[in-house]
Amino acid sequence: MIKLAKPDIKQKDVIDACMANLQKEPTLSNITKSRSFIEQKSNKYNDLGEKGELGNIPVHTKVLGGATKDDMVWLYDKKFVRDGGRIFYNKIMKIPPFSRCPFCGVRRVSTLDHYLAKTEYPTFAITPNNLVASCADCNKKKSNLVFASREEELFHPYYDEFDDEIWLKADVSLVVDEVLFKFYVSKPEAWMEEKYTRAKNHFEKLELNDLYTAHAAEEFTESKFSLERMYKAGGEELVRKDLRDRIEEHRSNMKNTWRAALYEGLLNCQEFFDIYLNRLGI
User: Fold this and answer.
1) N or C: more exposed end of the chain, with fewer CB within 10 A?
2) Residue-wise over 214-224: b if at least 16 C-beta within 10 A, else e?
3) Claim: this prediction has a pTM higher than 0.85
4) Residue 63, helix vs strand vs coil
């Protein structure tokens, strides 16, 4: 989960671009009547996000002034994504460093996610701070989710900091000669229960264990030969030093990465040394 800089985009400019050459009726009339309300609520969105109070926004199907859910969904799909607003779509897509999805931290961004679903919160269909570049898988899993409580709210890349403490861990187990991984959320002492619950919900909803496990299996397959060579050359202590170096390297930029959790899991698994590496007969 990656914290992102908020879009440096004014709501007024987005509406201007989306309404340029807009002729479809009654959508044009409806959105024109709702324009000031949309701008006002978009500014309020940022205030609520900063306070962690986005959950106070009620689900709705109409926008004050006359715009309907269908109007706003059409405006996003036809004008923001494909027409005059595309410049802002592209700008938001470029926010994540290295095009990395902020929700999973692994896959490349390929679409924009509405943090508050546009079908449930149409007022914010083209609100820049409600639009987050994400991978298609995270977007699909998140879908039109409505959060019933603060604890159920997924990580919001513009407002939430979840890399302040180390919470991503991996259990390592051996089945015959196969090394297996299972990732999970561990509660840091400095975290309140609410934040811990949110992290777990985010992790489970987006099925991140499955994602990280698949990558960990590939990573271990590629690195096990170097670990085995080190074990032959210097025994357990040399391998432990290498694992600690890898952990430090991967946490130098971000505390919670699946690679750091993977190598920490190996470091903490005595069976990995006593059984897996010891099978080499050194």
Assistant:
1) C
2) ebbeebbeebe
3) yes
4) coil
